[in-house]
Amino acid sequence: MKRVKLIRILLFLALFLPLFGSAQEEESAEVFLEEYTDEFQEYFFEALKQKGIENYDKAINALLKCKEMDPDSPVIDHELAKTYRLNNQLGVAQEFALEALRKQPGNLWYLVTYLELVGSRSLDLDVLKRQLPFESSQLKENLAGLLVEKGKFDMASRLLKQLDKSEIKTRLEAKIADSLARQDNITTPEPVDGEEEEVNPYQKAVHRLQDLLEKAEFGKLEAESTEALEAYPLQPFFYYSRGAALNGLGQYKSAEEYLLMGLDFIANDEELMNKIYKELATTYRGMGDPGKANMYLSRIKNGS
């Protein structure tokens, strides 16, 4: 029995660690599984299996069985949110994402999933205040950070005013001020005496990943795009970079998930959207699905 549980834990990690990539997640995953009965684990791993082969209805049914056995688990709620989303049942997905977040307000990834489902164009701080557990200072810090990365500086500033003084608040306020100054500073002075012009960390990461993409160094690209996503979890270029890296490494199923997430974050960047469509075509060819590959190729605009 212990051997079976170990195999299941390894399967869980293989499926989920590409999304997180931290030792803390590995430990929490193992603890999560050990807390439950064999029957619960059977349904849980059946859900992962069905989700992996895109039988989303069956995956959802298995997860709902898990929820019957443990209605209070935010992990199951979050999995239901992600699986309903893949099944294009976005309203239900949003409900489960919100339920997970209400149970564990400080979880950054639950918040990321919820914001993905809400959509960046629909973000409204007053609406979020009514929906989210705003009594959690950790949630407000996480939300402020995500809003800053999304360029929603006015919303982030309003939110930061509600937080007590802290290192995170100071850092985010400085980042907002720096970003606004860069936008307004049209006449940037030229570097003097050979001094190199300062490049902000975000642009530095973009340039580095672009270089690795051009050189097709997929191992380094996968590692460094993962780091970039940890720092900037709402930037679509980094999802595209990781998807391209995973395609290059032949990990098409994981590539699909990152590329689709990247599409969710794009507002009006047609060039990047076309690049993601091309990568998705590569993904589906690699998965033996030429129909989907051609579908995404047909979406590319302006012959890009």
Give an account of the 3D structure.
With 304 residues, the protein is mainly α. The chain has three domains: 2-133, Alpha Horseshoe (Serine Threonine Protein Phosphatase 5, Tetratricopeptide repeat), CATH 1.25.40.10; 134-182, no CATH class; 201-298, Alpha Horseshoe (Serine Threonine Protein Phosphatase 5, Tetratricopeptide repeat). It is built from 17 helices and no strands. α1 runs antiparallel to α2 and α15 (252-265) packs antiparallel against α16 (270-286).
Notable characteristics:
304 residues, mainly alpha, Serine Threonine Protein Phosphatase 5, Tetratricopeptide repeat, 3 domains, disordered N terminus
Brief synopsis:
The chain is an all-alpha fold.
Number of strands: 0
Element pattern in H and E: HHHHHHHHHHHHHHHHH
Main sheet properties: none
**Rg for CA atoms:** 21 Å
Low-confidence blocks of residues:
1-31, 186-192
- Which outline best applies? globular
Give the domain tally: 3
Q: What is the name of the CATH architecture of the largest domain?
A: Alpha Horseshoe
Identify the CATH class of the largest domain.
Mainly Alpha
Derived from helix and strand composition plus strand pairing, the structural class reads: mainly alpha
